[in-house]
């Protein structure tokens, strides 16, 4: 069985919408879940919804910050589905705070999940894709990776790092038929942004040209485009309602 997409952070929010968006395109879906509790909390439902669209879908548990855990994840998914054609790195965390008081733990945690996590999965998926002579990788960055953001030095650094990683992988693997792009969402309504203080939400809303937050489905549409289009690589597609024009 082929035409398989592995999406990390797919048990909730944007990752769940991407899983469903790719399932609608006929991809079999490996729903990457952080832990067995994220399988319970959302991953199982996402896999079930994908199966209702007529494709195969299963949850796979892995902490993306764990290098050997990602090797095992890729091996498991490839064995189950016969290969991996699409990798979407969507797992991410925030640990916000002012730079003058940011702990080393907060900095390391965010970099380890958001940036090293993407390296870990790409590192293990690319030998497979190279053997297949094709594949599509999409990394979920953020507009703050382009603009920076007060109180998010760790997060913005991780998301900016993803852009460098994306462009390097695109250059390195283009000759093998593998594309690598990034999507940079702005303010999207999910559990991650729900947790923000009301005042911060209002301040962000006032900067959005289209005057509203985006939906996870609007980000998923951009990912589907980058997966299907075979002549776009090394790009950052900003999906932010005009926030960072
Ligand atoms: P979310 O919290 O619903 O999704 C994050 C996912 O990452 C969760 O499913 C979580 O279980 C998973 N995850 C966290 N740590 C992990 C780990 N160590 N290993 C594996 N999985 C792990 O929030 P979301 O808004 O859907 O975020 C999805 C992605 O989009 C993130 O990378 C986030 O940085 C990015 N993003 C979100 C927004 C927004 O406005 N919501 C904007 C720009 C970028």
Topology overview:
Layout: E1 4-7, H1 13-24, E2 28-33, H2 36-52, E3 57-61, H3 67-81, E4 86-89, H4 104-132, E5 135-140, H5 144-147, H6 153-173, E6 178-185, H7 191-194, H8 198-205, H9 216-228, E7 236-239
Bound molecules: nicotinamide-adenine-dinucleotide.
Would you give an account of this structure?
The protein is an alpha/beta fold. The chain has one domain (4-239): NAD(P)-binding Rossmann-like Domain (Rossmann fold). It has 9 helices and 7 strands. The protein has helices at 13-24, 36-52, 67-81, 104-132, 144-147, 153-173, 191-194, 198-205, 216-228; strands spanning 4-7, 28-33, 57-61, 86-89, 135-140, 178-185, 236-239. Helix 1 (13-24) runs parallel beside helix 2 and helix 1 crosses helix 9. The radius of gyration is 17 Å and the shape is globular. It binds nicotinamide-adenine-dinucleotide. Nicotinamide-adenine-dinucleotide is lined by residues 8-9, 11-15, 34, 38, 63-65, 90-93, 113, 140, 142, 185, 187-188, 190-193.
């Amino acid at each position: 069985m082929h035409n398989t997409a592995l999406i990390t952070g797919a048990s909730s929010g944007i990752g769940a919408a991407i899983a469903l968006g790719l399932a609608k395109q006929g991809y079999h879906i490996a729903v990457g879940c952080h832990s067995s509790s994220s399988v319970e909390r959302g991953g199982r439902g996402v896999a079930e919804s994908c199966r209702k669209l007529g494709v195969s879908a299963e949850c796979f548990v892995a902490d993306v910050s764990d290098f050997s855990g990602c090797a095992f994840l890729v091996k498991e998914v490839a064995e189950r589905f016969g290969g991996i054609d699409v990798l979407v790195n969507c797992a991410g965390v925030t640990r916000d705070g002012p730079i003058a008081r940011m702990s080393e733990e907060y900095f390391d945690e965010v970099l380890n999940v958001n940036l090293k996590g993407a390296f870990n999965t790409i590192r293990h998926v690319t030998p497979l894709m190279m053997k297949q002579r094709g594949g599509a990788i999409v990394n979920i960055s953020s507009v703050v990776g382009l603009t920076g953001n007060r109180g998010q030095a760790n997060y913005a650094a991780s998301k900016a790092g993803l852009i460098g990683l994306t462009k390097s992988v695109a250059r390195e693997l283009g000759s093998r038929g593998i594309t690598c792009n990034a999507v940079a969402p702005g303010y999207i309504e999910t559990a991650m942004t729900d947790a923000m203080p009301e005042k911060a939400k209002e301040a962000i809303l006032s900067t959005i040209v289209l005057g509203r937050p985006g939906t996870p489905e609007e980000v998923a549409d951009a990912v589907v485009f980058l997966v299907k289009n075979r002549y776009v690589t090394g790009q950052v597609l900003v999906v932010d309602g005009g926030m960072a024009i």
